[in-house]
Amino acid sequence: MKYIDEYRDGAAARRLADQIARITTRPWTLMEICGGQTHSIVRFGIDQLLPDAITLVHGPGCPVCVTPLEMIDRAIAIAGRPDVTFCSFGDMLRVPGSHDDLLSVKAQGGDVRIVYSPLDAVQIAAKNPEREVVFFAVGFETTAPANAMAVYQAHQRGLTNFSMLISHVLVPPAMEAILAAPGNRVQGFLAAGHVCAVMGVAEYEPLAEKYDVPIVVTGFEPVDLLGGVYLCVKQLEEGRAEVENAYQRAVPSAGNVPAQDLMREVFQVIPRKWRGIGQIPHSGLGLAPAYAAYDAEQRFGVDALHVEESPECISGLVLQGRKKPPDCPAFATRCTPEHPLGATMVSSEGACAAYYRYRKRAALA
Asked: How would CATH label the architecture of 1-312?
């Protein structure tokens, strides 16, 4: 198909890689901030096309992966109740909690359902007024508008049996946490095009200025990503630190303003804990006071549940770009997609899953 093939053109990719090599005069470390981009980089060997001086590290761009362990345990506790129909996207069902996962709850008789939209859960609630229907709202800014719409519609329809377990996180505060951390080595970012399609590009400008770091908004195909790397390296080599939109075919500068308005109506910015990283101020979304009645944590009394991460899993270091999946002693041995230690091996956007799928043989050699 034209709009896929042209961005997977091998000759165009090679030309971009050659251009990057020509302008690179010193080592640079760049981070992509999207799990979909991570999979494209590993699948197509984009990092292997680059000169040795360019290092790509993988950031906390997988929403499933950064959902904290205790939130999975809260989901399991709610889903196990006999009066609850628990709705989720499919990628959350195999994410391990402390002792179990949602798929196990379903296997044991729990009413756990895979849906393709949060609005499906609203419909289930409308058709089953005797059931408590809970939707597991996980994601970055990309999924927040649809989740906000689900709460808004439930409110408009007067549904009292619908609620959300919310683990929404925001990209810019996570980027700032990485940049401000001691020992940070990230010098430039590839920003996620789908997040920017919702939020626009202006919110990255204070980060670029404060930390003197270029941020290039890009897409997900090889030519997109190599083009983003080229622009990022060009800025670094020229001593510039600006926000550039290299994905204009999908990202308007202002983003999706009606979606932003709906998000501000239904949600408020709160601190949020990230799996393997810890709490980051102003990095999450929770329900605004006018919609607090739809908060599943409060409704089912699971908000006080706290657990510790497994010390064997290094997913936190992977999500911060400090380690790569093959650096983990458990990678592809004690930790596999069938028996994962952490969410980065389960999620379709997880870095560990990407390396397992495309580079397991090389990692074990």
From this structure: 3-Layer(aba) Sandwich (3.40)
Torsion angle in degrees (nearest 10) through CA of 285, 289, 293, 296 = 20
Mean predicted confidence (pLDDT) in 122-136? 98
Going by C-alpha positions, the residue among 325, 353, 363, 361 that lies closest to residue 39 is 353
Cα angle 23, 29, 35 (rounded to 5 degrees) comes to 115
Structure confidence at residue 333 as a pLDDT band (50, 70, 90): very high
Q: State the Cα–Cα distance between residues 317 and 150, nearest whole angstrom.
A: 34
Domain boundaries, the chain: 1-312, 315-364
Going by C-alpha positions, the residue among 188, 160, 177 that lies closest to residue 284 is 177
Within the chain, what is the greatest distance between any pair of CA atoms? 66
pLDDT tens column, 148-206: 999 999 999 999 999 999 999 999 999 999 999 998 999 999 999 999 999 999 999 99
Distance between CA 329 and CA 322 in Å, rounded? 15
Measured in degrees and rounded to the nearest 5, phi and psi for residue 308 equal -100, 150
The label of the residue with tokens 């605004």 reads 288
* Residue of 190, 255, 216, 195 lying closest to 37 (CA atoms): 190
